[in-house]
Amino acid sequence: MHSQKNQGILHSIFVHGLLVVVGLTFFLPFFWLISTSLKNDTQLFHFPPIWIPWPLKWSNYPKALAYIPFFTYVKNTLVISFLNVLGTVISCSLVAYSFARIPWKGRNFFFIVLLSTMMIPYQVTLIPVLIIFKHLGWVGSIKPLVVPAFFGSAFFIFLLRQFFMSIPMELSDAARIDGCSEFGIYWRVMLPLSRPAMATVMLFTFIGAWNDFLGPLIYLSDESQYTLSLGLQQFLSQHGAEWSLLMAASTVMILPIIILFFFTQRTFIQGIALTGIKG
Amino acid sequence: MRSNVKKIVGTLVVLAFLGTLLGLMTGCQLIHPKKKKTVIRYWTGWTGVEMESQKRIIKRFNEQHPDIEVQINTVASSYEKVKIAFASGSPPDVCSAIWADDLASYAMRGALTPLDAYIEKSGRHGDEYMPGVWNMFQYGGHIWALNVTTNSSFMLYNKKMFRDAGLDPEKKPRTVVEFDKVNEAMAKFDKNGNVLRFGLRPSNILLWAYVFGGHWYEPDKRLVTANDPHNIKALKWLASYNRKYNCRKIDSFNQVYASGTYGDQYAGLYGLLSNQVGILFTGEWSYDNIRRYASKDFEYGYFPAPYPEDGGRPNCLTVGGSVFVIPKDSKHKDAAWTFLNYMTQPEQIKEFCMDISNIPPLKKVAMEPEFMDIPMYKFAIDLVSGPNAFGPPQMPTWPYYLAEIQRVEEKAVFGKQDPEKLLNELNTKIQKDIDIALRDAAY
Amino acid sequence: MTSTDKRNLRNGLLFASPWLVGFCCFTIYPIIMSIYYSFCRFDAITKPHWAGMENYHNLLFNDPLFWKSLWTTFYMVIFGLPTALIFALFLAILLNQKVKGLALYRTIFYLPSITPVVASSILWMWLLNPQIGLINYVLRPILNGINTLTHLSLAVPGWLADPHWSKPALVLMGLWGVGNTVIIFLASLQEVPEELYEAALIDGAGATRKLWHITLPLISPVIFFNLIMGIIGYFQYFTQVWVMTRGGPEDSTAFYALYMFNNAFLFFKMGYASAMAWILFAITLVCTLIVFKTSSKWVYYSGETK
After folding, report:
1. A chain contacts of residue C103, beta-carbon cutoff 8 Å
2. CATH superfamily of C31-298
3. How much is the pLDDT for B19?
4. Which of B196, B220, B205 shows the shortest CA–CA distance to B305?
5. Span A61-275: which CATH code?
6. For strand B389-390 and strand B317-318, is the pairing parallel, antiparallel, or unpaired?
7. Which domains, from first to last, does chain B contain?
8. Which of B44, B320, C2, C233 could form a disulfide linkage to B100, CB 3.0–4.6 angstroms apart?
9. All structural domains of chain C with their residue ranges
10. A114-138 pLDDT, tens per residue?
């Protein structure tokens, strides 16, 4: 008994030690990000590297936020991200419901089609897609960036389908006997049961849209509509890069997501656990 | 767990609400009625200081032209956006986010408006520009672009390091033989072969082919000349450095800045200022950076690319950079020209070039004391105005050719493959490529 | 067709309609066009010229860089992906121990995944800088120590400046970005019933046996999922190299997707790029199918019918 307890302590020390080492290693680049964001030009290239610059050049932050219209970009990115979250959640849950719970003819065929669309590299469909949007008169607006979300995304449909499949069929059957329509089952039975999964989809979508670079690059052509990822690019000018400012802006950009993640991670992980990703 | 879900959903809903509200607010601003103005959409790749200067000039333009409103947008370093916009038929009205290297590609494909008639109508003349710069605006007998700034390139060296290496700091290497000797004197390695000090490993065969008296393409005959004997000689010379030294180690030594992808003004200079890199291949913009970063006692000099005495070209360099074009799909070509004409007037060019420490491409502006009184600028201006300033060949498949040229250089230098064979193969491949492209274009 | 079948078909199509409509509007046309382009010489600006099999023929027989880029991509799939998966699993197992401060560790491991790629790539360019980068700064004294002990002459790697080290550098960077995978693994580890471990403990099973005989079989569906997603992801590996190396040095990081992008948007060879895309599609499909086919041998589904 005694030795087992000792073993437990040893084990715990070992695990903690490993976590601290790996955790520090993982954190190091971030430390460097923050440290670089507080350096001046000479400190940047100094060798041996300067861990903590002194004096801290806090002025890089206001400078970075003034270098690009930072808060306009934050607002634009938020609008695009939230519309994406909204569209994805609505459309993907509906489509996933169809693929998971309604045995319709041709379902399997279309599911395979859905999965294979994930494998088509976007680079080549880029121009035809752009031409469609141009004919719709959407280029130069945020529509190409948000409207497609309302038509579902293959990855999230796949994810939600796996989740819906794990909910016992009896629940829907019972609801059906009570006179629920198919939409009623989706709305009253499936959605309330799948809130963690939806939260996961929301967070993934949000992060995806928040960091999207290529989409805004191609479709937005007015600086007042630009997003943060595009803004970051502006620190890399033709004649040189404003490294410190770029790092400062990046720090400010990821901060809200870190906070969001820190406080919501438990649900988020449960969401994934419950989606029962099983190939 | 339930409460956490609520927390997330709650947060997201609140933020979504705020986001939508903000969106609506901006939407409202856009609805304000405006006077009928011709809106010119202008895209640039400039950001930072360059962008600020452009914005100031454009503001003035908008004030002076009540019927036109120019809206400027930057694509930053993503010039691909421009290409994608051209491909989908939605380019801007004026664009300066185009490399001179790509100009012929667009021109041949009919994507641009020829500027000849406009230039003539406005009483402008090709003589205003330095000849090497003017030459790069042309393809197939037409003018397709103008520009507002140009760059030189030359060798900047650290005099103290020359002295330390037992060289006379006032004796600048004129020929490649002298240049090799400087490098030999400068090179210093530790016992593991790591570089402690070096001069400059010559690279960029594109330039050195011209320096050695060669060329890459003959537009009149539509002939690829990659295997010109001078080109071969130049490539052999570049490759000789990897026989004498370990070029990989030199490159890694030189890579004191993050990557070659983003040229950094200060990073490039760092090796020179810290007495590690003896010679830097750079341009006139270094003047400003030396003033900003170098210590008072930093002694430097500069010299043009050294050349071989038999058939080489002295004072040789390549020019390029961003150019201004009016896409063919622009709906307001006349107004676009009014703007382009304004931007390329001496006053605006002078203002812009002074803001960003570059040299002006207009002869008249370059002669002004603001530029001529600075010795390094004068030196740079003389180089660019000289007869051996080469723009990108007027060749519609040049971007591809250029990428292949760089690959051949890497194969010759690091892969130690035979330069002659490589350039012969390149010649065949590119000739075939251009023949097909020109044939397709003829339909 | 019974009335139930009809109703199901109607409902099924109705519910799937967002995707079906989107597929018809925004996916079918681009796919058909890109198939058509792949048989044309097309510069994306002027009209396409029909060229038959020319693009495919040139790719397969006249383009060494095509093969090189394919190999570079496979390198990441063969070395980068398993390394990343094993490392992610290792982290997930660590995090699954009941230790304090879990929320903090999870956030730290997830941080890289939420960092914008442009920012993280540039950050890594700094860290990997052979002269003044932090990584070599840490490595240098270690290697020097080894050198003095063993009389070897190991030098710090040139990372992104050296064609032999550029791909390992990307693998290393990939390890840092495994956050998403860790989170997915972690979620599945938490699903493994505690009773199984307790039963194993009574049987006297050690940690290794527990891992091998309980954990791995039970989470194999998730490993499978991550494997498939990883294959698809690495075949489209692009942004990092586009920001950091643009394919160099010596094409050592010229990934397939990057070469495709260059052809499409740098060299005005859209038709050629389209042909590349369809070859890539075929390869991805085949790889995915192979993994699917072999999955019955090693993926363990816990009783539920699928």
Report:
1. 262, 265-266
2. MetI-like (1.10.3720.10)
3. 47
4. B205
5. 1.10.3720.10
6. parallel
7. 38-151+319-390 (3.40.190.10), 153-187+252-314 (3.40.190.10), 202-244+397-443 (no CATH)
8. B320
9. 31-298
10. 988 888 887 778 878 888 888 888 8
